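Quick one: structure for this chain?
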Amino acid sequence: MEKSPTAIAEDKMIEDAFNELLNGYLASNHRKKAEIIVQAFRFAREAHKGVRRRSGEPYIMHPIAVARIVSQEIGLGSTSICAALLHDVVEDTEYTVDDIRQHFGDKIAQLVEGLTKISGGIFGDKASMQAENFRKLLLTMSEDIRVILIKMADRLHNMRTLGSMAPNKRYKIAGETLYIYAPLAHRLGLFAIKTELEDLSFKHEHPDIYKEISEKIKATQNKRTEVYTDFAAPIKEKLDSLGIKYEAKARLKSVYSIHRKMETKHLPFEEVYDLYAMRIVFDCDDQNKEKGICWTIYSAITDLYQLHPSRTRDWIVTPKANGYQALHLTVMGPDGNWIEVQIRSRRMDEIAEKGFAAHWKYKIGDSDEESELDAWLKTIKDILDNPEPSAIDFLSTLKLNLFASEIVVFTPKGELVTLPAGATILDFAFGLHSEIGMHCIAGKVNHKLVPLQTELKSGDQVEVLTSKTQVAQPEWAGSMVTAKARTRLRKGLRALRQPMIAKGSEILSSWLRDNKIPDTNLVITKLQGMLHVTNRDDLCYQLGAEELVLGDYLLKPLRKASDNDSNGLLSKIKSIGKIVPFVGSSSKKDDDSRKDDKPEPVNTKNIYCLRNTPDGPNYRLAGCCAPIPGDDVMGFVSDDGIVEIHSLDCPSAQLLKATYGSRIVATEWEGSSDERFPAQIHIEGIDRRGILQEITQLISTHMGIDMRKLDIEAKGEVFVADLWVRVTNADVVADLCRRTKAISGVTSAARIH
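Got it. Here's what it folds into:
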């Protein structure tokens, strides 16, 4: 049968994409095993024949793209490339892991099996499925780290092609990417991938802000290039005279990083001065000479420019926990702004970009980097061996372990211990051993006696004092920042409390059984909320210790929760998610055909419309972020079936997106409303007589805005003010900030809540 022109064009597109992958591999320094890669490609192409992605392209283009990332952006070899090409075969087709083993051997089959274990549900519809998959993913990591590296490539390609998915799916995937995958990429040293994942997540969650910042970066490029050229020219001249072979380039801050700095520092784009850093990558064949060359370059730069005394970072002697090595310094540039310079060897640069994948290339015996990775994987395993009871707790605990900033402290014998910034004596004690942590009474930092809650600093020498009579306290968790310490403390406390918990569990089960109430997650969650306890173990412990008693007043709300459980809530979620044609916003007030359990109107973009109805709003605003019309928001279907509205970048929303993806609803404010919403604005400026009167006149008289509260304080010549107002939408707040900044003496005005 003759192929159509479209089929011929598609065949050529697939072959071209694969040849690009193969040529990239053949140009690498890996042992050339092209034959097995070709075999894996033919096998995968046949297995996925006739299947298409949501975008309409042949499905095989996805495995090819993932394999290309694995090969060219992470730097892995033929085994990983084959596993990437085959990663969806077992999940999506009739083939089994045994079929893969028969054709490609044990190692490739093991990787494909590991990837198959963690694939189902990541984009599925079951609540909390993501958390379970992260658990599987991390368990598989300890068997072969390449599984997580291939999964990173898979996630990166999915993010690059996310535009073809429905809005609520985009929010869910972008949310879990920003919450888990980007920190995980950072922890594995995959800096380039981590940066791109953050930017792509931000782009899909805040397209307008992303576009605005991107355009401003482009508009200021010529000026930035001019400043960089003036700054770099004397450095290059000096390094050339020293005979150092190097490459110098400007590294631009990512859009996400710029936005985060604007938000945390309440700065406009124009006041983010550290938009770029200079990176110097030098060639050196002898690893023992790298340190000396780094400090030679450092000396050359500080001869030319003024050094910032507190912003030098030596990551060569004590690498970061993800293996990152470099020497950082910050100097005053010709335009009067501070500029960071990063100095690395070619080896350090490759490790910085490709993380632990590059360590294998430079491995010399049992390197420190590998032992650091092993230690981290053991920590992850420690968490997995003692999992949290709820998905949200598990993700929060995992997130704690994906720390980005490290400190280095020493034991009394001089052994080096890496901890996250902010770690305390308790983190150190539990990190050494659970028994030391459970019985610690104080610490000695640099030979000085200090309490357990003392925060450690890099370079501290730390000793833990213990006592057999000491009993660990639950409130210690508030003074810990590492997941290992919290997990071990909870495990120790559970062991101490287990007899009482078992007694309480029996009381709870009997009471529910006697009153014919099912023991479901929703019922227990409702009961915990009514009795003000945080988890089931605490509830059972307090029941066993007779600190709580189950009374008849609990029965009615629990039966109602039970009725709403499972089918009721699930149908509500599904109905909201369906595409229902939306025609106008008018509806007859006396039309009672639309009951509460029917779907709310959504428009043809599959977006839930936020609006006022005769019975009140069809949504509830979350108290954690207080969004207002005009903000980028998303909906979360709560346990009571109400769509709760969060700002897209609200920390609670990030956690919900990563944990309960199927409950996320894409939302849109509909039309205009006279309803007023609270907003908080922070103002700073130079104090002068009459400035407060001008600000209040602008708000109340000229703009007619309802002002609810004003806190103002002047220190010397400077004043700061926090203003609470009620407005109809975000545009009004933006206009208020703009007009406030125009007042003489006001240096900044920004919405903070």
